[in-house]
Specification:
By secondary structure, the chain is an alpha+beta fold. It is built from 17 helices and 14 strands. The longest helix is centred in the C-terminal third of the chain and has 36 residues.
Length: 399
């Protein structure tokens, strides 16, 4: 019995710790750098090249930031936006390096992979970064193909969230002839022609019959757009319901099939959760749906219907188009079936988060936060259950 008392006390302490188990928050590179005006140009081009979303969706990453003066040197080269993306992707490392870790490198140096290396645009080893810890605390970074250019030097740490994201200032832009090589611009996307050729002609015709709606889709092609296009058969089956909608209802339904951000197939698989749509406005936070991965399939659930992606029509950053097997019906326009309504979770907690989301926060940013928080919350519940079992065992011993 005397041995059981310390076990009981330890169990109670662990239960208390489990009750306060920390929940991780997803990072938002745009908001973090916004606190440092001297990096505003670097911050702007991370968003313009869609690298901000790439950073926000990763759980372990290091960003090598360059101040406005350093970015001025890069912009003086008049590189295209696609080439700038390659150059800046060199500054995103696929591992976590705090300032302390950099001063504790095994043998004083290491090689790290960058996002440019994993993009498929970097031949050979050109996307790798050599990191060296010199004497007296000096740390340098240089590309494999620097071509005689001097290395960049670590200046200071801007932000560190242990083992998640580290943002470090370096003295200058990393030089790489391969990353700075001209990139051919993709052919402009004619959305309705593309849809008509890929089994979505009926949906394309609806867009052509609504010029104002089509213009909103086209305005987003250059900045980021994902379209979920129902098949011709699905649109024909839905025809009677569509005809009964008001003009505003028809516009909202068409806009509901577009997301104002680029989501590649990989991003869709890793960013499961609520997606805002082109039908969502600053005054109306509704008209969203949930994207989920079910095995190899990706589904889009609106609480009224669940559609499945049947094929990828276009995946060309900043645009993606996917064929789906059903017309997406928002709960704002259609009655929720009783079976679906009974099984559907209450959206209250999610709704409040979207109401607070600002223009800098993309759906990818929010879902990265949701996924990390859920995983650690689950760990907390597991720990609580484990401690409860230990406590029960201790009580039995006492008795």
């Amino acid at each position: 019995m005397q041995r059981a008392v310390p076990l009981l006390a330890a169990s109670l302490l662990l239960l208390a710790a489990a009750a306060t188990f920390p929940v991780a928050r997803g990072h938002n590179i745009t908001k973090i750098l916004a606190q440092h005006p001297e990096f505003s140009t670097f911050n702007h081009y991370l968003s313009a090249t869609h690298l901000a979303n790439e950073i926000n969706r990763r759980l372990t990453i290091t960003v090598l930031a360059v101040d406005n003066a350093g970015m001025s040197d890069l912009l003086a080269k008049h590189l295209s936006l696609l080439t700038l993306r390659n150059v800046l992707s060199l500054h995103i490392l696929s591992d976590y390096y705090s300032s302390r870790k950099l001063h504790q490198l095994s043998r004083g140096s290491t090689i790290s992979s960058s996002v440019f290396q994993s993009s498929g645009h970097a031949p050979g080893t050109t996307g790798y970064i050599n990191i060296t810890d010199h004497r007296r605390g000096k740390v340098t970074f240089i590309t494999e193909d620097a071509g005689g250019a001097p290395p960049a030097v670590l200046v200071k740490s801007l932000k560190e969230i242990p083992y998640n994201i580290s943002i470090l200032q370096i003295s200058t832009i990393l030089s790489s002839p391969e990353a700075e090589a001209p990139v051919a611009a993709p052919a402009p996307v004619n959305l309705t022609v593309l849809l008509a050729k890929k089994g979505c002609k009926a949906f394309a015709d609806l867009l052509l019959a609504s010029p104002d709606v089509l213009q909103i889709f086209e305005d987003n092609l250059d900045v980021g757009l994902t379209v979920f296009c129902p098949s011709d058969g699905a649109v024909r089956a839905f025809g009677p319901k569509y005809k009964n909608l008001t003009a505003d209802g028809k516009a909202s339904l068409l806009l509901y099939h577009g997301v104002p951000a680029y989501y590649s197939p990989q991003l869709l698989k890793t960013n499961n959760g609520f997606f805002t749509t082109l039908a969502t406005t600053s005054r109306n936070k509704n008209f969203h749906y949930t994207v989920r991965t079910d095995g190899d399939a990706i589904t889009v659930k609106t609480r009224v219907v669940t559609a499945t992606i049947t094929s990828t029509i276009l995946d060309q950053d900043p645009d993606a188009v996917y064929a789906i097997n059903k017309v997406l019906q928002p709960r704002e326009l259609f009655k929720i079936p009783e079976v679906v309504e009974a099984d559907a979770p209450a959206p209250a907690s999610k709704k409040s988060k979207h109401a607070a989301a600002g223009p800098e926060e993309s759906p990818a940013d929010e879902e990265a936060s949701d996924n990390s928080a859920l995983s650690l919350s689950a760990a907390g519940r597991w720990l609580t259950a484990a401690m409860a079992a230990t406590l029960a065992a201790a009580v039995i011993v006492v008795v």
